[in-house]
Amino acid sequence: MALCDEGYRCEVCGQDVEDLTQSDLYLRYVLGEVDPETLHVRPERHLACNPSLAQFIVADSFPAVTVEGFFAKSELDPDFVAAEEARVTRGYLRLLELMSVDLPIVEYPLPEFRTRWQGLADGEAESESDKDREGEGAATVGTEPPNRSGRDTDEMSRR
Ligand SMILES: [Zn+2]
């Protein structure tokens, strides 16, 4: 896996980020928060080294991360926490899944986030039902401008 070969270092602790399932960068990528064009230039971090995000991962295979203070889950709105847990945990499970399948990197993100970048990637991704309908229906604007100048000149010429 490319991530190992190039030995990405965590910008927080300086240790290698050994695989996808430890990667804060790739977690945010599968959640649609990182533009694939900038993925290779973004700093890498361990999930555990970014506790304010990692605290929302609720999975048996992930050692629970707790945050103290202002951004602790216990300090946040319960609805927000529940939504974040659902979202971030899905992203983490996606990383686990990616360890066992062979997908091009543009297809790493979860389906609902994949379309966000689809215009930027080379259009190799299979578009299932969600074809983009850009431009259809909005294109009927080309009516002629109201031509009043003709009448005006008629009136003028009568004078
Ligand atoms: Zn680290």
C-alpha geometry = globular
For the sheet with most strands, the description reads: none
Radius of gyration: 25 Å
Number of helices: 6
Alpha-beta content class: mainly alpha
Number of domains: 1
User: What string gives the helices and strands in order?
Assistant: HHHHHH
Percent range for helical residues?
A: 25-40%
* Termini Cα gap: 84 Å
Please characterize this protein's 3D structure:
The chain is mainly alpha-helical. The chain has helices at 2-5, 24-30, 51-54, 78-98, 111-114, 149-158. The protein is globular, with a radius of gyration of 25 Å. Zinc ion is lined by residues 10, 12-13, 15, 45-46, 49.
List its traits.
159 residues; mainly alpha; globular; disordered N terminus; binds zinc ion
Quick structural summary:
With 159 residues, the chain is mostly helical. It has helices at residues 2-5, 24-30, 51-54, 78-98, 111-114, 149-158.
Write the layout of secondary structure elements.
Elements: H1 2-5, H2 24-30, H3 51-54, H4 78-98, H5 111-114, H6 149-158
The structure holds zinc ion.
Zinc ion is lined by residues 10, 12-13, 15, 45-46, 49.
